[in-house]
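step: validate -> pass
step: tokenize input -> pass
step: predict -> running
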Amino acid sequence: MAIEVTVPALGESITEATLGEWLKQPGDAVAADEPIASLETDKVALEVPAPQAGVMGAHQVAVGDTVEVGAVIATIEAGSGTAAKSAPAPAKEKSETKEAAKADEPDASITLSPSVRRLVLEHGVDPSKISGTGKDGRLTKADVEQYVQSGAQQPAAEQAAASAAPAPSAPSPSGNRNEERVRMTRLRQTVARRLKEAQDTAALLTTFNDVDMSAVIETRSKYKELFAKKHGVKLGFMGFFVKAACMALKDVPSVNGQIDGEEIVYHDYADISVAVSAPNGLVVPVIRNAESMSFADVENTIGDFGKRAKDGTLTMADMKGGTFTISNGGVFGSLMSTPIINPPQSAVLGLHRIEDRAVVVNGEIVIRPMMYLALSYDHRLIDGREAVTFLVRMKEAIEDPARLLIDL
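step: predict -> pass
step: emit ->
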């Protein structure tokens, strides 16, 4: 008897998703709770588990189709791995499918997330030769990247083909002007729509300041080993900025507020959205009640978000809410930017790269590690004076971290 596979609940207010990838093909053996498909929602990618063990039945929808919660997308037939191999299919088509799989796809017996599958195909590596460190021994992007960086060789068949191929001649001008069209993911569509809505609705303005990172760098250098030994996590820069932001938000509550119709909502808590890079784009999970957390709690939470973003395991609950956003473009080398707010929030803090610059201190020109800070905000709610005050509070806390301990 066939069991229907339906689209699971996707989270509050999320009613539909896009089928991003089939992880199992008709005739494949599947285990109970094994991922068989990947769905893309407005915020994250989710895997659809098999409701029971058996043989993958027919796909009811195609990659790229929009599906609603509760919709039937496939069936699971009764059977086992042996039955899966003898599942009815045209002999020629089955043979061609196998040959194509050998040439272009990773081992079908290994379940890979969409991002890992793309990386495996990109580098042409055999996933069965890589040790997985994810849940239940599954491969992560980091596993594949580490394998590639370790100098792993190409499969023997590829090596033979490469050695047999004649040496390439000097390229001649071809005049080709190739183009490729790729469907936007649901996440990218949502990001584009929300950013444009923010520009159309909010009165956006950006204020800048710079900060001397000497004290934070010295503090990290002095305590990083003790911190890691006691808390089991590295002491990073983001912990200082999150704690400094919480203190500044308390002093300038409008930056932590939002407009709701004709009312202003002020929050006495700081739920900090931190932008992290994921395979399908930038996502912003939320550090909840950051004002009550220790440095170790903040660093552990951010580290967990980063790992799960790479693995594609962040949930809708991780993204929900947020009263203020911190985006660190400095990790990509950005010197200065004007970030766009994440509605319904009213402000976002942009961090940038640290670089040595000549500055004047006590009448003398010295070299200091400096960073530009950018606060983009909704001028309908936040005045220029409040924006500048917020950045000054941030600057004071970062240049004198002791203020974070005594709440000054």
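step: describe -> The first helix runs from residue 81 to 85.
step: cleanup -> pass
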